[in-house]
Design goal:
By secondary structure, the chain is mainly alpha-helical. The protein is 55% helix and 11% strand. The longest helix has 17 residues.
Amino acid sequence: MREWSDMHYPEAEKIVMVLDNLNTHSPASFYEAFEPDEAHRLAHRFEFHYTPKHGCWLNIAEIELSALGRQCLARCIPDKAKLISEVEA
């Protein structure tokens, strides 16, 4: 998480994370992994949203990724720019 905070999104005021309900996916885990000052800093940089424990959100995500794979990614894409434009379309 420190990498996400400091390398990928250093300018972000808050980083929103969508996570499953695994017990390690909470701000309390920062305090187990880092010194208190660093844990506090990281805990305030992230906003956690949890997926439902019993729901069909995974089916929706799987359907979307399957459609993307069939309609867009099932062929050779020559470069990153083309991939980005295809996925956005």
